[in-house]
Design a protein that fits this description.
Elements lengths: L1 H10 L5 H8 L3 H12 L7 H17 L3 H14 L12 H13 L1 H11 L25 H5 L3 H28 L11 H31 L13
């Protein structure tokens, strides 16, 4: 009575129901036809159902004494579900022993088929690598080099250009501040103003030279892509 209840429950669930019912009732030809129709082409989207279908087809072929086909279906079923448990109320003892024997003797083949049937791993999309425009090299203070990931040279240019620019600007500003209302320097301020003007010119020329070097170095260098930027959270 218990076996009949189990058979009815199995037969009433999923697309395998008619095939299970045919196998349980002894209609091996009908069960085999139904199972092969479900497997070729595959009509079972769930791996568990497909594994059960292969094992049920193996049991059918085993009962028909088609042992090579039964072994093939056992391999396919165990490749899909290595932990498949056969209900002794549904499958006869000799078939359960057959499955255990195939599981031991064909372990390498089962592992190979399991690898072949494993769902593909979906990798995250590769990060987009953004290339900075060479136009950044026209910006002073090493900005272009920093934008292109050339940190060391960018830092050196930022410090040297910044220093020469500051010296030139401060010298010019101080020299202009020393001028009188008539635009001339007093006798006392003239020596200092003369030194400030020299400092201003030296700083300006040094800044211009460093800026020109930075632009040429950047524009003539090979483009270097920026490091991938992580997506904002």
């Amino acid at each position: 009575m218990k076996a009949l209840i189990v058979a009815l429950v199995l037969a009433s669930s999923s697309a395998l129901g008619p095939a299970r019912e045919a196998y349980q009732s002894g209609d091996l030809a009908g069960a085999r036809t139904a199972l092969e129709a479900l497997l070729q082409p595959l009509q079972l989207p769930q791996r568990a159902d497909e594994a059960e279908a292969h094992l049920l087809l193996a049991a059918t072929c085993h009962a028909q004494e088609d042992l090579p086909r039964a072994e093939q279906e056992v391999v396919e079923g165990l490749a899909l579900d290595a932990d498949a448990k056969l209900d002794p109320l549904v499958y006869p003892p000799d078939f359960i022993a057959f499955v255990e024997r195939v599981n031991v003797l064909r372990r390498e083949r089962i592992t190979q088929r399991a690898t072949e049937r494993r769902p593909p791993v979906l990798l995250p999309p590769a990060p987009t690598i953004q290339s900075a425009s060479k136009g950044w090299y026209l910006v002073p203070f090493g900005v272009g080099h920093l934008q292109h990931g050339r940190t060391t040279k960018g830092t050196v240019l930022a410090v040297t250009q910044g220093t020469t620019f500051a010296v030139s600007a401060i010298s010019l500003g101080t020299a202009l501040a020393l001028r009188g209302s008539d635009g001339r320097y007093s006798a006392n301020d003239a020596p200092t103003a003369r030194k400030l003007n020299v400092s201003y010119l030296v700083g300006a020329y040094a800044f211009a030279a460093l800026y020109s070097y930075g632009v040429l170095d950047g524009l003539l260098s090979n483009p270097e892509p920026l490091a991938p930027r992580s997506a904002p959270r």
